[in-house]
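We both want to read discrete structure tokens more fluently, so let's practise on a single case. Would you supply a protein for us yourself, any chain you care to pick? Would you write everything just below, so we can both look at the same thing?
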Amino acid sequence: MRNNSKGIFPILSKYLFGELLYPVIFCAVGITVIFLGNTLFELTDLIVTKRVAVIEVVKILVYRLPEIFVMALPMGTLFATFYSLGRLAKDNEITIMRISGFGIHRILIPILILGILISLTVFWLNEEVAPWANHRALNILRELIVKDVTPTIKENTFLSGPDDRQFYVRQVDRTHQLLYDVIIYEMAYDGKKSSFPRVIVAKKGRFDESVWELEDGVIHEFDEAGFIIKEGTFTKMEVPVSDGLEFLSRNQKTTSEMTRDELYDDIQLFLKSGIKMDSYLVDYHRKLSSSFVPFIFVLIGAPLSIRNHRGWVIGVIIALVITFAFFVVDSLFRSLGSAGAIDAYWAAWLPLWIFGALGVILIIKEEFFF
């Protein structure tokens, strides 16, 4: 009798793809709503204590949506995998497919393809949408702070200042308006723009609305080839900030507000001054590695869910355990990378390699020991 599996496979793939796609959307939206509710609870203080207009809080919530959805998609994908494939396993549909001649690898192909597509979606949101939206949301919060108190300059944060300057401050004492370990890059100085910036490094500084008064510092100037042509020290130096601290407050960016390219450029700029950028390097690599978490969750969740014949409740419990285990391992490696204990690249990627390898082992076991 002729084997019709080749003709059936496209139909089966479409069926499996659809079986997982809709639960992924449903689970991701549901988790997003839960996270959104938690964010709203945190922002309620702005409405109650600071009398902030409700429309401003709504704007913050809308701008936070992309980041929240990016966090929800991996978990939604894992829960949907256990729900969908667990239902197929419980109804013996997986068993029928395998008896009909379909190996586990062929059954999982459409599932894994969907995992890759979800990962690409997460990458696009992380690069094109979330940084812009996060910057808008945080700027609203910064502007609200500006109305009441001196603008907050965050520690270990890049600031884009007026007059083509880049600022970095390691530590801030807001009570006494003091700055520690300040670095300023000036791309334009002495009335001209240079290929290499003038670098001002100071151990300490004091800030007010229009001037930063730096103490105990060094100035480096470079020629067009990048060699130091002038180096001088200073006891005190005033750096005017023409648009005030409000400008800096609006233009400072955390890593969540940057694309990979923006973060890479700032890392390269500040590495020249000898600053340890381990935590930023980890975040740079994580911007790519975190996009593949949905695929890894499908890779490890699919073979486990196929073995689950006890219903969706057990599937949800297993999914929760996997999610918790992954984020514990991920947090551990992130801390090690930020502390410089391991290379930043491996700090970002090792959790995915570990869980991905486990998923491959489970698929091989399911394929050959059915």
In short: Residues 157-253 form one domain. Residues 14 and 67 are 30 Å apart (CA to CA).
